[in-house]
Amino acid sequence: MSSIKPSSDSAYQDFLRAIKSQVVQSRVGAARAVNRSLIEFYWSFGQLIVERQEALGWGKAVVERLSADLKQEFPEIKGFSPQNLWLIRQFYTEYQQTPNLQQLVGEIPWGHNILIMQRIKDEAARHYYLEATARLGWTRNVLLNQIKAGAYEVSLQDKSHNFKAVLPEYLAEQAEETLKSQYSLEFLGISQAVHERELERNLIARLKDFLIELGYGFCFIGNQYRLALGDNEYFLDLLFYHRFLKCLVAIELKTGRFRPEYAGKMDFYLEVLNDQERAPDDNPTIGIILCAEKDRLEVEFSLKSKANPIGVATYQLYPEVPEEYKGMLPTDDDWQKLLESALSEEETS
């Protein structure tokens, strides 16, 4: 048998990669086919149980008896426990009136279906988690964490970012689900306007509460994080690592209204972080500008030319003002101007 010549080794490597890709695709396709077949079986099984109980007036005892008989007949097959038979019955009864969900349930594993069925009751929310799990390949733990973090509710918020323009599709969607439109900082107990550094100190002092508000997966690295470039040094307000996005997340705090120059500064920070701090297997670093107010159109145009993923969100320090009183109280921007004026007077006195 002749060996492959060095000159043709690259061609062989391309050939090997193509074969490996086909093997992986074949295995994934086979696994999906098996899963779809199992879900279809459970659907028919649940339908039979419901129809027989209704037609013949059988009570709950029939499920226990059926479980024992099936386990005796097919001892090598798992899934015939009384608990699973009740879940199979519930699966059919809960989805029989929602045809738009029946196709989606076959695209994800049974364990994922159970999790969604038991924890989510709203039809639109179920559609979101079923579709996202199938499309993004969430593990059961990731799905559970997304549910706990209220990913569906977050997805409904009006968000400002450029993720879709600068990140791969799968990562852009996960990043969007992580970002909130507004963050509630009422836990700080602040009743008046504060300077950015004071806001930062308060957040660090209540770091556990802030991490909960950010959402599951954020890990704190540091505040006033030093970045050096030549003879210059810069300090980033807050730096985190996100376990599921597998990337650094930089947060800049602004106690006033969003300004276009903030996007340029964040873009610069992200370039430095990617060059100096990003690990070889990390995804691109994401930036979040957290400000008191924002104009959506201004944010949109500010992010158009930026090469790095940046999101802009607002924060809420005080309880929501009733609708009838809105417009009668000073805005956060008004408070910021008053604060800056007071600080200026102190410095000149």
What does this entry show, briefly?
This protein has 349 residues and is of the alpha/beta class. The chain folds into 2 domains: 29-155, no CATH class; 160-348, 3-Layer(aba) Sandwich (Trna Endonuclease, Chain: A, domain 1), CATH 3.40.1350.10. The protein is 56% helix and 15% strand.
What does this structure look like?
It is a single chain. Strands 1, 2, 3, 4, 5, 6 and 7 form a 7-stranded mixed sheet that branches. It contains 15 helices and 7 strands. Strand 6, helix 14 and strand 7 form a beta-alpha-beta unit. The protein folds into 2 domains: 29-155, no CATH class; 160-348, 3-Layer(aba) Sandwich (Trna Endonuclease, Chain: A, domain 1). With 349 residues, the chain is an alpha/beta fold. Pfam families: DUF1016_N, YhcG_C.
State the end-to-end CA separation. 92 Å
Radius of gyration: 27 Å
CATH architecture of the largest domain: 3-Layer(aba) Sandwich
| Average pLDDT rating | 88
* Annotation field: number of helices: 15
Amount of beta strand: 15-25%
Low-confidence stretches: none
Shape: globular
- Kindly state the number of beta strands: 7
Q: What's the main sheet like?
A: 7 strands, mixed
**What share of the residues lie within helices?**
55-70%
Domain YhcG N-terminal: 19-153
Organism: Leptothoe kymatousa TAU-MAC 1615
Domain YhcG PDDEXK nuclease: 177-329
InterPro entries: PD-DEXK-like_domain (IPR053148), tRNA_endonuc-like_dom_sf (IPR011856), YhcG_C (IPR009362), YhcG_N (IPR041527)
